[in-house]
Amino acid sequence: MNFAREGIPFILIALALAAAGYAAALARRSWWLWLLAFVLTLLVLWVAYFFRDPERTGERGPALVISPADGRVIEIVEVDEPAFLQGRAIRISVFMNVFNVHVNRYPVSGRVAYVHYNPGKFLNAAAEKASLENEQSSVGIQTPTHRVLFRQIAGLVARRIVTYSRAGDEAEQGARMGLIRFGSRVDVFVPVGSTIHAKLGDKPVAGTTVLAVLPQ
């Protein structure tokens, strides 16, 4: 099992705490210290599970828009997107809970033409206004024929968005581009006229599930 590089310090800290718990339990022969050590072992397992980074494969193609995140589709709506698409767009919102893989991936291939970080609030990521008011990082990809924007949005628990993308980078569909720590959300904006495959309640898999097909 691979782990996200940003999670390694957290895993090591959890391991150190668990080791200290077992050392104290052995030295003092105390049942409650053994219990504490067991709880800390569960913490190690959960932290490692949270930062897991499995390999992903799936359908690829210049017209396909692949899910950038694991989670659940909570909204599909037509909106104005003035920052990068500069017009009407269809927004597909995927909500990630604390049990989902939190590594995010490029939904399309192309050139990174827009990167913007916006500090903000930490509202429930599933709420409608979270897309506008929460801390977020937006990445716009220029494909050979279209523009696609996706946005990492922090939630109630999330306090750190990691985005590897820099303007001018080459984006490869399905490749890792960052992660969000703990519960959060990713919005994908595609041009109006795209064929939407996602449905409300769907549980897409990052780098694998096709959310939409761009207009031909």
Please give a structural write-up:
The chain has 216 residues and is an alpha+beta fold. Helix content is 21%, strand content 34%. It folds into two domains: 46 residues; 150 residues. It is built from three helices and 13 strands; from the N terminus they run ααβββββαββββββββ. It has a seven-stranded antiparallel β-sheet with strand order 2-3-11-7-6-5-9. Strands 1-13-12 form a three-stranded antiparallel β-sheet, with no helix packed on it. 38% of the residues are buried.
- Unreliable segments (pLDDT under 50, ≥5 consecutive)? none
Our count of domains comes out at 2
Largest sheet: 7 strands, antiparallel
Shape: elongated
The number of helices is 3
What is the number of E strands? Answer: 13
Q: Gap between N and C termini, in Å?
A: 38 Å
Task: Tell me the helix content.
Answer: 10-25%
- Percent strand equals 25-35%
Question: Mean pLDDT, as a whole number?
Answer: 88
Topology as a string of helices (H) and strands (E): HHEEEEEHEEEEEEEE
Name the structural class: alpha+beta
How would you write the strand order of the largest sheet?
Answer: 2-3-11-7-6-5-9
Radius of gyration: 19 Å
Question: What's the arrangement of secondary structure elements?
Answer:
Layout: H1 8-28, H2 31-50, E1 64-66, E2 72-81, E3 87-96, E4 103-105, E5 110-118, H3 130-133, E6 136-142, E7 147-154, E8 161-163, E9 170-171, E10 176-180, E11 184-191, E12 195-196, E13 210-213
Antiparallel strand pairs: 1-13, 2-3, 3-11, 4-10, 5-6, 5-9, 6-7, 7-11, 8-10, 12-13
Helix pairs in contact: 1-2
